[in-house]
Design a protein that fits this description.
The chain is α/β, with parallel strands linked by helices and about 325 residues long. It has helices at about 5-15, 45-55, 70-80, 85-95, 120-125, 150-165, 170-175, 225-230, 240-245, 270-275, 305-315, 325-335; strands at about 60-65, 95-100, 105-110, 115, 130-135, 140-145, 200-205, 215-220, 250-255, 260, 265-270, 285-290, 295-300. It has 2 domains: about 5-185, Glutaredoxin (3-Layer(aba) Sandwich), CATH 3.40.30; about 200-335, Glutaredoxin (3-Layer(aba) Sandwich), CATH 3.40.30. The chain is globular, with a radius of gyration of 20 Å.
């Protein structure tokens, strides 16, 4: 049996009954600061030195953890995923973990010798959401990026995906498919529906005529527990519904070969398009601008407040004036 399948089979037997809890938490900004694990590496933030030390210790590379002290998604990762002893053991065996504060001012020396502070380094690495993890291999090349909170089984799979060098041969989506998404099943037999979803067939082409407003595309599937939770809680919020109605909104079944035309005018089908976009999480929401260019994607667990902020970024057209969601958020914070 494949190693990932063995891990997930054990996970199903032992932890499946409490799986729903791994998706559920409050995403209100924390009132008290997060305390990082004491096993995180104490670093002078010279990344090449950190990598050299990890390799000398027979590790597969380093993980840079981008977080904030008041981030509820970071707390969920630290408590629910890195709160498990087996995941901590596996992480420490294969990686050194270096923490970066996305609002911090400490200087970081990148692998190429470029020096920047934590805040600007985070912006350059496009860490729109905290936590974000960048995995670097023994050669200092970025092997993988994991954005947002991922529940324990997906997080452990991501660690194994890099540690065993599967990233050199296949996508993370392909790697996860070997477990047949066992732990994301158990949801509704039908796709969840919303009144603001445009009906198929989907001609999303925005290259011939500039659209009047941005578009949100929900990439989902049947029997998806995380999809059910998204629809039953955040998308039922009145404010969220009102903001969604200001957009063109489409739902795509990533397991159905429904024919469509993409925002860039390419004839495709749902499965091929989702593969082209390298999607590995359901549900993923991708926002496109009036010309069909991707603005931002949410490909991890998302709750009310994060979704509200992303929708504000989109509906206010802030993406036209800021290079990223993260830059916009920093500007709003500094303006207070």
């Amino acid at each position: 049996m494949h190693k990932l399948q063995s891990i997930l089979l054990l996970f199903i037997i032992i932890i499946k009954p409490v799986l729903a809890d791994e998706f559920v938490f409050s995403d209100q900004t924390l009132e008290s600061d997060i305390r990082l694990p004491d096993w995180f590496k104490l670093s002078f933030l010279d990344l090449q030195d950190d990598l050299d030390e990890a390799v000398a210790d027979n590790k597969k590379g380093i993980i840079i953890y981008f977080g904030r002290k008041d981030c509820p998604y970071c707390k969920a990762l630290l408590e629910k995923s890195w709160g498990r002893k087996d995941i901590v053991h596996y992480t420490r065996k294969h990686f050194d973990v270096i923490a970066i504060n996305t609002k911090g001012t400490r200087n970081i020396t990148d692998f190429d010798g470029y020096v920047d502070d934590e805040k600007n380094y985070s912006l350059r690495k496009k860490t729109n959401f905290t936590p974000s993890l960048l995995f670097f291999d023994k050669q200092g090349k970025q092997a993988f990026k994991l954005s947002g909170y991922q529940n324990p089984y997906r997080f452990l799979a991501a660690l194994e995906y890099v540690a065993d060098a599967h990233y050199q041969q296949q996508s993370f989506k392909s790697y996860l498919s070997q477990a047949k998404d066992a732990l994301e099943s158990g949801g509704s037999d039908d796709l969840n529906q919303q009144p603001y979803f445009d009906a198929p067939p989907h001609n999303l082409n925005r290259t011939q005529f500039i659209a009047e407003r941005p578009m949100a595309v929900f990439f989902e599937k049947k029997n998806c527990h995380a999809c059910d939770i998204l629809h039953s809680i955040p998308l039922e919020n009145k404010s969220i519904r009102q903001q969604m109605e200001e957009l063109d909104v489409v739902q795509v079944d990533i397991e159905n070969t429904e024919q469509l035309i993409t925002p860039k005018g390419i004839r495709s089908d749902s499965v091929s398009w989702s593969n082209q976009l390298n999607l590995h999480y359901s549900p993923t929401i991708i926002f496109f601008d009036e010309k069909g260019d991707e603005i931002i994607r949410i490909d991890s667990v998302v709750w009310l407040h994060r979704l509200e902020r992303v929708l504000e970024f989109i509906n206010s057209r802030a993406y036209k004036n800021y290079k990223s969601f993260q830059a916009w958020r920093l500007a709003k914070t500094n303006a207070k």
